[in-house]
C-alpha cells in the first residue's frame, strides 16, 4: 500500500488555504517573491543575529530570555546610556560558562546592529509630570526618528519587532520611518514590521481560563485582539478548551453566564499588567518570554499563530485606505507575517474591533506621518 505524504494526494483541495487565510494588504509582488525565499530554512552556516534597542528592564528581560533559549548566535544591545549598557553587557558575558555560546556586543551607535536578522525596539520616552499622552507620543515619534532609520539602513533585510508602548501606534510609526534616508516613508514591506501587540494579553487570558478550569494553558485556545490596551477585544466566540468550543458547550450544559461577567474577565486581563506594575514597579519577565516566543516563531520559521500588531487594513470591516496597526492572529515565519487566519467574529466582536481601529486611526492622524 502506497504511503500518503500529503492531504493533496487524498483529494483535499489546495484552495483550502485561501479559505482559511488571507495575506496582509499592500505586500508587493516583489516582496512576496522575497518572502518565498525567506521562508526557506536558514542556511546551516548562517549565524542568527538579534539586536535589541533599549537596555532597560524590558530590553534586558528580552535579552536574557533569548539568551537562555539559545535563539541567537549574536546579540547586539543598543542604548543611549553607555555606562549602564556596558554594565549590562558585561553582566551577561560573565555568565558565558553557564549559557549557550553567544557573542554579545553593545554600543550607543547603530553600526553595532549591522546584519541583524531581527531588530527589537523597546526604547521609549517616559511620561513627564503633567504631560498629556499625545505630547508623550510626539516625543516617542521623535525618538523613533533617531532609532528606526539607522536600524533599517544597517539591516535592510531584517524583521522589525516593536515592543515600546503604545505599541500599535509606534509599530505604525516604525513602518512609516523604516525607509532611509529618514524622509523616505514606508521602506519595509508591512509583513516585516510587527508589534508585540496582544501576544502577552492573550497569554494572560489563557492563563486565567486555564486556572479556573484546571487545565494546562497550552490546551486553551483564546485570543485578545485589537489595541494592546483598554479597548482590546476578547474573542469569546472562538475560545476552545482541548478542541471543545467553550461558549456553545456552556449553553448546551445549561450553564448560565452574562455578558457583564465576560466583560469583567476581559477587564481583569487588561488590568493584570497594572497590578504587576503596582506591586513591583514595572513588568519585564512575562514580556521577555512573550517576545522570545515571537522571535522563535519568526527566526525558526515555525509558522505558529500569534496575535500580534500588524497592518490591519481591509480586515473585519476596517477600511482598505486606513493604515492602522492592531493585533490579529497571524501565521509567523522567516518572512514575518505570512498569512492571517480568517477568524469568524460575532457582530459585537467586529463592532468593538472596528471601534478600536477608529481610536488608533484618530491618534495616528495627529502625528503627521501619512504619505
TrEMBL record:
It catalyses: (S)-lactate + NAD(+) = pyruvate + NADH + H(+). One of its GO terms (molecular function) is L-lactate dehydrogenase (NAD+) activity. Its EC number is 1.1.1.27. This is L-lactate dehydrogenase. The active site is at 228 (proton acceptor). It comes from the Eukaryota. HAMAP family: Lactate_dehydrog. NAD(+) binds at residues 54-59, 79, 140, 163-165. InterPro entries: L-lactate/malate_DH, L-lactate_DH, L-lactate_DH_AS, Lactate/malate_DH_C, Lactate/malate_DH_N, Lactate_DH/Glyco_Ohase_4_C, NAD(P)-bd_dom_sf. GO terms for cellular component: cytoplasm. GO terms for biological process: lactate metabolic process. Transmembrane segments: none annotated. NCBIfam families: L-LDH-NAD. Residues 198-363 form the Lactate/malate dehydrogenase C-terminal domain. Keywords: NAD, Oxidoreductase. Residues 48-187 form the Lactate/malate dehydrogenase N-terminal domain. Pathway: Fermentation; pyruvate fermentation to lactate; (S)-lactate from pyruvate: step 1/1. Belongs to the LDH/MDH superfamily. LDH family.
